[in-house]
Amino acid sequence: MSVVTEELSYRGRELESISDAIDDVNVLKGKTWSKKSELDENKSKKSFRNYENACDRVKDFYRLQHRKQTVEFNLKARAAFRNRKRVSMSVWQAIELLNTLVDESDPDTSMSQIEHLLQTAEAIRRDGKPEWMQVTGLLHDLGKLLLLFGSEGQWDVVGDTFVVGCQFSEKCIYPETFRSNPDSRHPVYSTKFGIYEPNCGLDNVMLCWGHDEYLYQVLKDQCTLPPEGLAMIRYHSFYPWHREGAYEHLCNENDKKLLAAVQAFNPYDLYSKSDERVNPEKLRPYYEGLIAKFFPPILEW
Ligand SMILES: O[C@H]1[C@H](O)[C@@H](O)[C@H](O)[C@@H](O)[C@H]1O
Ligand SMILES: [Fe+2]
Ligand SMILES: [Fe+2]
């Protein structure tokens, strides 16, 4: 394991290398993260994202996320990201570091994150899609590393995303839970356009803070992915927009183009969750080759 050039301040203490971080993750795993080894049964498309029958873990997650994702928090989280000392590591190290977390917001998978990333990428590759899209699939959830980089919990990392600073959309899952968010009673933030101009473009709105936005911010100046790939990363959890058609009044022409890309990506993210298991070590050489085409050997995370 190569040594990290910068030190990472993590849960109040300094880590000198990524292997320290991985050890830490392994310790934490037993305490806060559970990992089931069983692959979910093959599912029909309809049985994905069934939030009505989701377990309490998922419902509790959204209650918290919808209460705590406010404009005030968003501004704070973005500033914290800009001011934080960044960690240096390769893409593959990042994948390994992420591997032990279980996403509390996800009703559809109990697989490890590395499997989810590889299954997404493999499904894209099987369909003969371009290399940039395969590698986008491989990376798209790496923003969940935020869990190790100072997030307050899972509620500011995972889950579907929505816009803050204007009325919460009824198209979000469990929309009634926004009632406990103070912004839902704010004189400006609770209005249709809130702090935004009509059709200002998604680039100019604040999506709730989480793994999509974080990874987009990390990668936008450190890779050669096309805008469509970056949009797939930035908006893949934005289901109220890409699946339900919400927020059209904030979108511009460019967003319409990106919407098509995000929609093309979504089935690979979602439905590959029932695919056969993958072997990370076997697939690694192929994907390391792809990574080298689009990313420098070491990135700042
Ligand atoms: O990776 C996440 C996660 O799996 C969530 O459960 C889902 O709601 C998000 O949209 C997705 O991006
Ligand atoms: Fe995701
Ligand atoms: Fe995903």
Count helical runs.
11
Class by SSE composition:
mainly alpha
Report the β-strand fraction as a percent range.
Answer: under 5%
Percent helix range: 40-55%
Q: What is the averaged pLDDT score?
A: 88
Strand order of the largest sheet: 1-2
Number of strands: 6
Largest sheet: 2 strands, antiparallel
Bound chemical compounds: 1,2,3,4,5,6-hexahydroxy-cyclohexane, fe (ii) ion
Radius of gyration, CA atoms, in whole angstroms: 19 Å
User: In angstroms, what separates the terminal alpha carbons?
Assistant: 17 Å
Q: What characteristic shape results from the CA principal axes? A: globular
Provide an overview of this structure.
It catalyses: myo-inositol + O2 = D-glucuronate + H2O + H(+). Belongs to the myo-inositol oxygenase family. This protein has one domain. It starts with 7 loop residues before the first strand and ends with a strand. By secondary structure, the protein is mostly helical. α5 crosses α10 and α6 packs parallel to α8. It is globular. 43% of the residues lie in helices and 5% in strands. A hairpin with a 2-residue loop joins β1 and β2. It has eleven helices and six strands. It has a two-stranded antiparallel ribbon with strand order 1-2. It has a two-stranded antiparallel ribbon with strand order 3-6. It has a two-stranded antiparallel ribbon with strand order 4-5. It binds 1,2,3,4,5,6-hexahydroxy-cyclohexane and fe (ii) ion (2 copies).
